[in-house]
Design a protein that fits this description.
Shape: globular
Helix content: 25-40%
Distance between the termini: 42 Å
CATH superfamily of one domain: P-loop containing nucleotide triphosphate hydrolases
Structural class: alpha/beta
Strand content: 25-35%
CATH class of one domain: Alpha Beta
CATH architecture of one domain: 3-Layer(aba) Sandwich
Largest sheet: 6 strands, mixed
């Protein structure tokens, strides 16, 4: 049995007749922080969606803690310990911050640890405590992203997957959000981060994967990728 938490092997995925991923393989170890970088059309979001079983036309293999995800419907994936924060946040706009957070714990409802998890989210994002009764749709983009991440954390995930969490946010909010991800990782949660901001992604992750046109072009430690002339030229503008 693999010691990896997540193992993706020879994964191909398509929308209708358009194949987006072509034989992608990657792993995430327990407690590891892996980032996936690449251009807008590289297939990064499709990769996360395929892991969450939201892309039905996929072949290859995806295993999480030894369980075959390819045979599993999407609604069963969160209960395994996989939390997915999609691009665009997708909070429930007419629900309060607190109710949005509780929605994240739906698959483990009844767990006596849920109040403690909410306190952990509020400690990580103090503004959410201040606005716990506010409608999520009335908050700023940065605050909504905090709600989306906090909602995912309410699952107490073994693997937290985030899709472009810094997109469209002010630089100060981006720094605050990524500092929170470092804290989450330090607590032992594995993270798979898709991020357009390559410099930021490689500064917080321990290992990286470069996708190009739906294929793995490069992979290695974050430090090695930062120093790779191909990455520096194509993604860091150096």
């Amino acid at each position: 049995m693999s010691a990896d938490l997540l193992t993706v092997a020879n994964l191909s995925a398509r929308y209708d007749r358009v194949e987006v991923l072509h034989g992608v393989s990657l792993t995430v170890g327990p407690g590891e922080f892996v980032c996936v970088i690449g251009a807008n059309t590289a297939g990064k979001s499709t990769l996360l969606r395929a892991i969450s079983r939201l892309v039905p036309r996929a072949t290859g293999s995806i295993a999480f803690r030894g369980q075959d995800l390819m045979r599993m419907p999407a609604h069963r994936v969160p209960a395994l310990g996989i939390a997915h924060v999609p691009e665009g946040r997708h909070v429930f706009p007419d629900m309060s911050v607190e109710d949005n957070l509780l929605a994240g714990a739906f698959s483990c409802r009844g767990d006596p640890a849920i109040p403690a998890r909410m306190e952990e989210v509020f400690a990580l994002f103090p503004r959410l405590r201040e606005r716990r009764s506010q409608r999520a749709g009335s908050m700023s983009g940065g605050e909504q992203q905090m709600v989306a991440v906090g909602r995912a954390l309410m699952l107490a995930p073994r693997l937290l997957m985030l899709d472009e969490p810094s997109h469209g946010l002010a630089p100060m909010v981006v720094e605050e959000l990524h500092a929170a991800l470092v804290t989450i990782h330090a607590r032992g949660t594995a993270i798979l981060l898709v991020e357009q901001n390559t410099q930021l992604a490689l500064s917080v992750a321990t290992r990286g994967v470069v996708l190009e046109s739906g294929r793995v072009a490069l992979e290695g430690s974050a430090a090695a990728l930062r120093d790779d002339p191909r990455v520096r030229e194509a993604y860091l503008g150096l």
